[in-house]
Amino acid sequence: MTEPILDDTEPQYNNLDYLRELLGDDIDAVNDIVTEIKVQWNEDRLRLEQTFRENDMAEARRLLHRIKSTFSPLGAGHVLYRVVANGGEAFLKKRGILAEDQDYWDTFLKSVDGMVQDLQNEAE
């Protein structure tokens, strides 16, 4: 199996500058989007946990792709987008299993959850 090709042309960041620029510094719109990202992540996190417990590879792939799309308004260089793309989707593709990687996925979920919770602090 070949390693995934990672696009490292955009530097990684952990701020809302891309979203602010995209929305013309409309802080209300930024806050609305951040709120929606947090709500969607909370729903998706619960579904991912269930998917991992059930060892449902197809659903895990689908959810990780959707979560990546949820984080896309933050920009492809945002740490959340990259963690899901490189630490979620690429890891799953490379390993091809769920059951033996529960510790990895537990750490993945905790990491993403912490970063999502920090988003509101940046938007205020």
Average the pLDDT over all residues and give the rounded result.
86
Q: Helix content range of the residues, please?
A: over 70%
Assembly type of the chains comes to: single chain
Per DSSP, the total helix count is 5
Flag low-confidence runs. 1-6
Taking all Cα atoms into account, the compactness measure Rg is 15 Å
Overall strand count: 0
The fraction of residues assigned to DSSP E strands is under 5%
Classify the secondary structure makeup into a structural class: mainly alpha
Shape: elongated
Distance between the termini: 44 Å
Largest sheet: none
- The helix-strand sequence is HHHHH
Organism: Niabella pedocola
InterPro entries: HPT_dom_sf
Protein name: HPt domain-containing protein
Description:
This protein is mostly helical and 124 residues long. It contains 5 helices and no strands. The protein has helices at residues 17-22, 27-54, 57-71, 79-95, 102-123. It starts with 16 loop residues before the first helix and ends with a helix. Residues 1-6 have low confidence and may be disordered. This is HPt domain-containing protein. It comes from Niabella pedocola.
List keywords for this structure.
single chain; 124 residues; mainly alpha; 0% strand; HPT_dom_sf; HPt domain-containing protein
Entry summary:
With 124 residues, this protein is an all-alpha fold.
